[in-house]
Amino acid sequence: MSASFTKSTARNIFYGGAVFFFLLFLALTFDTTQALPKRDNRVNLTEQVARGKNIWETRNCIGCHTLLGEGAYFAPELGNVYQRRGPEFIKAWIKGQPTGAPGRRQMPQFHLTDGELDDLVAFLKYSSEINTNNWPPNIEG
Amino acid sequence: MSTSTTAVLDTPRGVEEHAATRLKYRSQAVAKPYFIAAIGLFFGQIVFGLIMGLQYVIGDFLFPEIPFNVARMVHTNLLIVWLLFGFMGAGYYLIPEESERELHSPKLAIITFWVFLVAGALTIVGYLSVPYATLAKLTHNEILPTMGREFLEQPTITKVGIVLVALSFLYNLSMTVLSGRKTSVSLVMMLGLWGLAIFFLFSFYNPTNLVLDKYFWWYVVHLWVEGVWELIMGAMLAFVLIKVTGVDREVVEKWLYVIIAMTLISGIIGTGHHYYWIGTPGYWQWWGSIFSAIEPIPFFMMTLFAFNMVNRRRREHPNKAAVLWALGTGVMAFLGAGVWGFLHTLAPVNYLTHGTQLTAAHGHMAFYGAYAMVVITMISYTMPKLRGREANSRGAQKLEMVSFWLMTLAMVAITLFLTAAGYVQVSLQRMGTTPMPFMAAQDQAATYYWLREASGVVFFIGLALYIISFFVKGKTDEAAH
Lengths: 141, 481
Prior knowledge:
The structure holds 2 protein chains of 2 kinds.
Chain A: H1 7-35, H2 47-58, E1 66-67, E2 70-71, H3 81-85, H4 87-95, H5 114-128
Antiparallel strand pairs in A: 1-2
Helix pairs in contact in A: 2-5, 4-5
Chain B: H1 31-55, H2 68-99, H3 106-129, H4 132-138, H5 156-178, H6 184-200, H7 210-245, H8 249-270, H9 284-293, H10 296-311, H11 320-342, H12 347-353, H13 357-386, H14 394-430, H15 438-444, H16 446-469
Helix pairs in contact in B: 1-2, 1-16, 2-3, 2-5, 2-6, 2-13, 3-5, 5-6, 6-7, 7-8, 7-10, 7-13, 8-9, 8-10, 10-11, 11-13, 11-14, 13-14, 14-15, 14-16
């Protein structure tokens, strides 16, 4: 860096750049929140979905699975599991855990009631209908 | 600039070298327990990393005692907490020295330490001793549900505790800065730390709408690690470089401003690279791709910065290990955050790689290279002083440098094997006309997972040697050449 480029110039670029781009980010955030109602499937946000999301969170599902590609990479993507497996399979699968197959990855038994299973499935169905710009690339997630 | 890069002036013996204590201000000593706790928690993090690594190939290892999700929660939360301990220790050491006065309240710093350590320990014990749903019930998550989101798994009450600890810490440091000398290093450090606390507040916002939840979750996670944490990192690195190289502060601080300017110019809008596939508008693919493509630049400048300052050094600091960690931070942060981030940041690439082992590869090297290493750099420079000497004995430093190479090379190996696993996963599960199911693709990557685990064992050995290096005695060679 040349000597004519002083520390105070650098400092001004820092403050100016930080403020400008943070404001731009806020503007984009505002625009995003305006665009979301058409994309985020909020019309289907029912009480049941809310209960399902709470079950999703309090069982720490994200500690093994991904949802819309975010989470842990130990177990399958669940953003599209509703289309991949269907509601009955999902409920039977959760009820049947752990498989106990030696050496295979194991999912805990969460002792969910039938009502709670329906809530969770409702949440996964809602999630699967969010407009994700066609992600994931195929049904396997 | 014209100064020679090779001329090494005679070693100026600072006044402090003859003082009974190596600390300029006695209250800097409060940093010591923070650093010790950081190293202890780092050790715990790696133990759980090894457990998870093994669970990738022996799926039922330690099941049902420690299911994978619990091990991962402990692994990532310990990482965050030990880095926070490191940042806080760095703050308590650096701010008095930069401000040229004692810390506002050393007593408050020690109380804060114990509150944070006990709260952190209780949270980890909670993760390990009861099912997560029980922990949620015990801590009344229903009052303000914030649990169960990646990295923000802590019970709401723990999150409140983190805010209180951060406020106490920031109050203490801000009061010190306000009544003392204000330098660019301390200003940038404080900006970063305040930003850390402010953006953490978004962890209390958890709407039912999954898209909004995810959108603002990144306000914590991305604006931390690709935003304000880089300010903290830059300030810590600048502080150590000024100390070990004796290069003029004006030069160092100019670099610091340019680096963090580029960090925020690229990194804030760069958040967009997380907004491709979570329900947000398609234009984020443009914003995210373009801005995150320039995110490697500040990291590359960090590398140039570290090497430049060391080449232009005006003194031979006896703490060679600290200099090595500082240089290593520059290189590894660029590789991990810069190169491995760029690898999958462009939207068309990310469409295929999103949420695969490639993300894990990037995460490991970036966190180690940027944040773990900068904290260790700070510890390496300050710990001898906190223990009453300018630098450790030759033997201790030699062992510390061995541990540097073992951990760093092991992390390179972990990253390469996870990248290979990611490649297998992407090509089998995401591409082609007959994509494989998740678990079938995972089985195909098993060899790479075994190699990753072996590399993890090497990392663990490196960490053990690092800890042992603190106990190696021997005569301190003040003017080692």
